[in-house]
Structures are given as C-alpha cells and as structure tokens.
TrEMBL record:
Family: Belongs to the ABC transporter superfamily.
Taxonomic superkingdom: Bacteria
One Pfam assignment: ABC_tran
The keyword Lyase belongs to this UniProt entry's keyword annotation: yes
Keywords: ATP-binding, Lyase, Nucleotide-binding
Name of the molecule in the record: Phosphonate C-P lyase system protein PhnK
GO molecular function: lyase activity
CDD domains: ABC_NikE_OppD_transporters (cd03257)
Cited PANTHER family: PHOSPHONATES UTILIZATION ATP-BINDING PROTEIN PHNK-RELATED
Domain ABC transporter stretches: 7-252
Family annotation (InterPro entries): AAA+_ATPase, ABC_transporter-like_ATP-bd, ABC_transporter-like_CS, P-loop_NTPase, PhnK
C-alpha cells in the first residue's frame, strides 16, 4: 500500500447548535483502501461523511486531502476552482437513493456523459462511446442508452449512479448506504459489481453503512461510531472476529443472531 494517506481527518467536530453530530473524529484513508463507517442510527455516520465531502460545514478540526500534484492541504484552504475539481472529477458520491444522485428527466447516456461535459469534454461522439462503455461495465444494455432512468429498476438506477460517478476516473468515492434501498437479491449483484470496480480502479472509498455484512464484504478497515464518537477502529476482519469495545461486541453479536 502507498505510504502516504489520501485523506487525513483530525479531531473533527460538527455541532448542530449545542447538539453534537460528531466529535473528536480522527482517522486516515490510504490510496486503494475501502473504509467502512458503521454504527446504529443517529451515531453520526452521515454527519461525518457529509463533513468530509464538504457538503456540510465542520465546526472544528482538520481534514487534509492529497491533491493529484502531491500537495496535502486542508480542504478549507482550497480555492473554489480546486473544490469544484474535486466535486466534479476527483471525488464521487453514491447516494442511498439513486434519484438523489441522478437526473431522472434525462437519458441514461446523458446522466453519464454530462459528468464529462462538466469537465470540458466537447467531443460528442467520444462522450457517447464512453457512456456506452460505462453502461456496459455496470451491466446495463447499451440499447437502453436513450432511456430515462425513470424506466429503470432500483438496481439498474443504482448501477447507473455508479457509472455516472466513475466515468471521470475519481480517486475517492463517498458512499452512503449504497445498497440500503434495494432488495436482498439485487443488493448482492450491486455489491459484487462495486467490489470488482473498486479493485479494478484502485479506488479509495469511504462507505457509511449500518449493515456489518456490507462492511465485511467491501471494506479492509472499519470505524465504529456511537453517539458521534469513534469507539473502535481497525482491520475489518479483526474488528468483526475480535471486537474490543462492548458496543462493537453487541453490534457483531446482533448480526450473528440473525
Ligand atoms: N440538521 C440537523 N440538525 C440537528 N441535528 C441533526 C441534524 N442532522 C443530524 N442531526 C443529529 O446528529 C446526530 C447524528 O445524525 P446522523 O444522521 O449523522 O446519524 P447516522 O448515524 O447517519 O444515522 P442514520 O443511520 O439514521 O442516518 C443525530 O442525533 C441526529 O439527530
């Protein structure tokens, strides 16, 4: 594994008025690594993900990101243009509800192609070819390229959202319960696809999930949150097989009972 982290979070805190969303959160993410953030509802997972992806303003703490040129600035030091580059190109965001990450009124091909146009690509033939290629990579027949995602199943919409995110070759993807809204059989297919793409493209991923099975399947490292704080973090296999915090022991025991 590369010896320099792609993301470094230190003592991150987010307050909603006097209420704490998350606090004292510190961790690193390495290139090509999948980190799962797990915990019960209300533990602060989404707050943390939204702060790191700059969709929510933090209250205090540091978040440093490795730019493509090797610099490692705090995200607060970036210019508008640099932040736009991260949002449009270097980062992806896969939402639980595909409708939050797709434009439902334009075609599948346009959903993928417009991410390329947003970064200045104007070669329409080339854009359509790359969109077709990406639809095939996420197992959507290229004959559906002109159809709107309104006519797609939930699993197809989620796979389209993944294609839209990956077409710009991002280095870091944020995922918020990416299989949470899908039937179990459909979940398995999307998880398989994600696992394959993450490994093929050597992506760094931060995935929020309340499903320890998803965390085990996709992640190498796991961060367990409770009441806005990290209570345990470590290699996923170690945390699952030998949890040290009583809360993690409870979480792991609860999935073994099901
Ligand atoms: N906009 C907000 N204003 C006030 N409190 C908020 C806001 N958003 C979240 N919170 C509170 O912050 C805490 C953490 O919420 P968050 O949504 O991050 O948890 P979560 O672990 O992602 O939960 P879930 O799995 O249910 O989405 C909760 O107690 C929540 O009520």
């Amino acid at each position: 594994m590369n010896s320099e982290p792609i993301l470094s979070v230190r003592k991150l805190e987010k307050r909603y008025g006097s209420f704490i969303g998350c606090t004292d959160v510190s961790f690193d993410v390495w290139p090509g690594e999948v980190v799962a953030i797990v915990g019960e509802s209300g533990s602060g997972k989404t707050t943390l993900l939204n702060c790191i992806s700059t969709r929510l303003e933090r209250s205090s703490g540091e978040m440093r990101y490795r730019m493509r040129d090797g610099r490692f600035p705090d995200l607060a030091e970036l210019t508008e243009a640099e932040l736009r580059f991260l949002m449009r190109t270097d980062w992806g965001f896969v939402h639980q509800n595909p409708a939050d990450g797709l434009r439902m009124r334009v075609s599948a091909g346009a959903n993928v192609g417009e991410r390329l146009m947003a970064i200045g690509d104007r070669n329409y033939g080339g854009i359509r070819r790359r969109a077709t290629d990406w639809l095939e990579r996420v197992e959507i027949a290229s004959t559906r390229i002109d159809d709107s995602p309104v006519s797609f199943s939930g699993g197809m919409r989620q796979r389209l959202q993944i294609a839209r995110n990956l077409v710009t070759h991002p280095r870091l993807i944020f995922m918020d319960e990416p299989t949470g809204g899908l039937d179990v059989s459909v979940q398995a297919r999307v998880l398989d696809l994600l696992r394959m793409l993450v490994s093929d493209l050597n992506l760094s991923v931060i995935i929020v999930t309340h499903d320890l099975g998803v965390a085990r399947l996709l992640s190498q490292r796991m961060i367990v949150m409770k009441s806005g704080r990290i209570v345990e973090q470590g290699l996923t296999d170690r945390v699952m097989d030998d949890p040290s915090h009583p809360y993690t022991q409870l979480l792991v025991a609860s999935i073994l009972e099901n």
